[in-house]
Structure formats: C-alpha cells, structure tokens
Design brief:
- Helix 2 packs parallel to helix 4.
- The chain has 2 domains: 52 residues, no CATH class; 376 residues, Alpha-Beta Barrel (TIM Barrel).
- The radius of gyration is 24 Å and the shape is globular.
- The chain is an alpha/beta fold.
- The N terminus is likely disordered.
- Helices cover 34% and strands 16% of the residues.
Length: 443
C-alpha cells in the first residue's frame, strides 16, 4: 500500500513538472537535488538524479534606445576563448565567429576582450611575446603570421559591436612555469621589475620604467588596431593575501621620498599610469576611450571618513588595490567606469544597490556601466540568492530604473553562453529583445 501511494505521488510530481515546463517553449534543463523514486522492476525505493526546467521571466521591460551591452571575453586560462590552445588561424576564426553570432543573438553591442592576459599578447607585438594561453607556448606565433586581433576587431565592427581591448597592466604570470617563457618575456629581460606576491608574479608599479613599458604596449595597440577602447579591470596592485607582504620597500626608498607613507606612493604610481595612458591614447586617436572596471567598493564609509560607501567590504580599491578611481573620475581621466558589482541585493557586507548608487553619485559626469556576475548564478553555495533565477533580472530592473546608468556588462562569455537557470533567456527575452545604440561618451 505504501509503495502504491509513493508511486502515485511520484507520478503526480512528474505531471506537475511537465505542466510547468510546458509553459515555456524553450526552457533550460538543470540538475536538481536527488529525489526518492520507486523502481517498478526491482520493487525498491532509490535515489535518482532529477532535472527541472527553468523558464525565464515572461514580462518585457522597456528597452532603451541607447545602452552599452557588453560581455567580457577572458583569454587567461582560456576561460572564454579559445577553447583549446592552437596556432591554427582557421580554428580561431571559426570559434570567434561562433561567439559573435551568439552575442548578436543577445543584441549585445560591445565586447571587452583580454588582449594582454599575462605580460604577453594575443596579437603580433614588438614588445611582448605571444601568449601561451593562445598558442600553447609562450612566444609561439600563429601560422602564417595571422593577425588574430585585427580579425577580431574587424569582424566585431562588421557585426555592429564595439571592441574594447582589455589589458592587464601588471600581472606577469599566474603559475610557476618560468622555464618555458619566451626569451623576450619581461620575466627574463627585466627580472628586477618583478614582485612575487603569493603564488603570482607582478610588475612593480613603483618603478618608472615599468609604467613607461606598459604605456608603450598600449601605444602599440592603439596605433596598430581600430579598437574602440582600452580597458583595465580591477587588478592594479594585487588583492591582499593574509600574512603576505609586497616587497617594494626598496623601490619606495628610491622613488617615493616625497610621499609621507608607502600607501600614498603606491596610489600615486597607479595615478601616474592612468594619466600617462590617457595622454598617449588621445595623442594618437582622441576617439578611442579609456575605461576601467574597478572593484565594487572604492572605500568603506567610516565615522572619520565619510567619502566611501555604506559597505563593509574586506578589501577596497583605495586601501588594498591602491586604485584611487575617485581621483581619476574627478580629473576626467576616464571615458567610462564599469564597477564590478558582483554582489547580490541584500548582501550583508556589500549590498548591490548601495554600491551602484555610490558610483552614480560619485561619477563626476563620467558614463557608468554596471558589471554583473552571471558567473555566480547557480554557482554559489554560501548565498542562496544566487540560486534564484530572478537575482540577475532583479539587478537589471534596479539599474534600468536609474537613468544615470548607461550600460550593462556581464562576466563572462562562458557563463552567459551556459544560460544558468535560464537567466540568459530572461535577458534576451525581457531586457535585450531590441537592439540598442552605443551611448554617447565624452572624449
């Protein structure tokens, strides 16, 4: 009798799920928690993997005529591109065109592509070697000297997407494989420029020659390619690691004598880089933008320091990454800012809307694009909010209600394509169902 009741219950559950899924023409199937099911053949109760179909939200929001809609394409560790290391241009072309087709299907209008992942390049350069993340070997070129970046930029423009060249200025490498670095890799040519911090190695921003080198790298990109922007992410000085210390005290003694403390000197080093990069960009191509996507919190607000946001972040742009983004906005050095607000609404330390409002209040007229963590959807055990398929749509509703927000960006391409919990479907169906023009930016 108990077995028969259980069988009826299981049948009813399956009918219920099928009814829900039938309401959506193209639902996404996702793995659910194991269920107890009755095995008719063996006459036993077993645990079985089950799947549920997630339907996207079905109510369309108003679609603005002008709005940047971007996606990050990460090449380090080949997170987003390419799928595998290769020197074959035909493989890379096919992969990139497939990505562009997907971006167009979402009505995106900008790609932020990592062209300098680790003191190297995905393009032919006179200053840095080819990236091992592209070809599998540091310094190994593509067959026939194919210029991948030129192809990516041109095809992006053909499809109506802006191309923002994403540069990691200081990161040297993210593993311990130093034996296979190309002869012209900076680790080999200028070992005295390198700071080891944790397991990673970084260029020392406090050395003037380092900043000059980075500016030259960016100048080469701007001169040789029809890009729309140079883009820096949140990585300036590395995120703080417990019980680790930056070994740059000797550089401070040599170059930082006019500063009262090492923290102010570190911030000034990044200030100098941003100012120099802007100057070299505008010298050659005034229409090319300079954008930064900083960590969500510039500084926490305290009773003695009221400039920051009402947050309790463990780290901040100002205090840990030594990125004084507020100064860069005041000086007018940035053409846009795209803070990485990778927190859910109601987060106990950094509330999503609180962070967004702070950046809007302190943008000094610079266009603000809000960056979203689609990679966290259905991928966070600690916070159940990220297992809610409506978390990202709620965030988009919030920023769409704020006229000062001029664009939306997603990290990253891989997760956007995976359509976690049907969120990508919701974005396509309810938010990006019509194309949008690029917002006007100052230059």
């Amino acid at each position: 009798m108990k077995k028969r009741r259980l069988l009826v219950l299981c049948t009813f559950s399956l009918l219920f799920l099928s009814t829900i899924s039938g309401q959506n023409k193209s639902p996404q199937t996702v793995l659910n928690k194991p269920k107890l099911v009755y095995n008719l053949t063996k006459g036993t109760i077993q645990k079985k993997k089950t799947y549920v179909k997630i339907k996207p939200l079905t109510n369309k929001r108003p679609s603005p005529k002008q709005e940047l809609r971007g996606v990050w394409v990460s090449t380090v560790h080949r997170v987003d591109f390419p799928n595998n290391a290769t020197s074959d241009p035909s493989v890379l072309r096919a992969e990139w065109l497939k990505l562009l087709k997907f971006y167009k299907s979402l009505n995106l209008n900008a790609v932020i592509v990592q062209v300098r992942p680790t003191a190297d390049a995905i393009y032919p350069s006179k200053l840095v070697p080819y990236s091992k993340w592209l070809t599998g070997q540091s310094g190994k070129p593509l067959w026939g000297n194919f210029d991948l970046l030129k192809f990516m930029v041109e095809t992006s423009h053909t499809e109506g997407l802006e191309f923002h060249a994403w540069v990691n200025p200081y990161r040297v490498f993210v593993d311990s494989d130093t034996l296979n670095l190309a002869p012209n890799h900076v680790f080999r040519t200028h070992r005295n420029w390198i700071l080891k911090y944790g397991k990673e190695h970084h260029l020392n921003p406090g050395i003037p020659e380092v900043r000059k080198h980075i500016v030259s790298v960016i100048e080469e990109i701007v001169q040789n390619y029809r890009i729309d922007a140079i883009h820096f992410d949140d990585y300036f000085y590395p995120y703080r690691i417990k019980d680790e210390f930056l070994q740059d005290s000797m550089s401070f003694k040599l170059y930082g004598r006019k500063f009262p403390n090492i923290d102010d000197w570190r911030r000034a080093n990044n200030d100098s880089l941003i100012a120099q990069v802007r100057q070299i960009i505008k010298k050659h191509k005034p229409f090319v933008q300079l954008g930064v996507s900083p960590f969500a919190v510039w500084k926490n607000k305290t009773p003695l320091d009221i400039e920051g946001s009402a947050t309790k972040a463990y780290q901040s742009c100002y205090g840990d990454l030594y990125a004084n983004v507020l100064l860069w906005l005041r000086k007018g050095w940035l053409d846009y800012v795209a803070p990485e607000v990778y927190f859910h609404k109601g987060h106990p330390l950094v509330d999503y809307e609180t962070a967004v409002d702070w950046w809007l209040k302190n943008s000094y007229g610079t266009p603000v694009y809000i960056s979203h963590a689609i990679y966290k959807v259905n991928n966070q055990e600690k916070y159940p909010e990220w297992r809610d398929p409506q978390e990202i749509p709620r965030q988009l509703d919030i920023v769409r209600s704020k006229p000062k927000v001029k664009g939306l960006v997603f990290f990253s391409s891989k997760w956007l394509m995976q359509n976690p919990l049907g969120v990508t479907d919701s974005i396509r169906t309810n938010f990006f169902y019509q194309p949008a023009q690029f917002p006007q930016v100052k230059n």
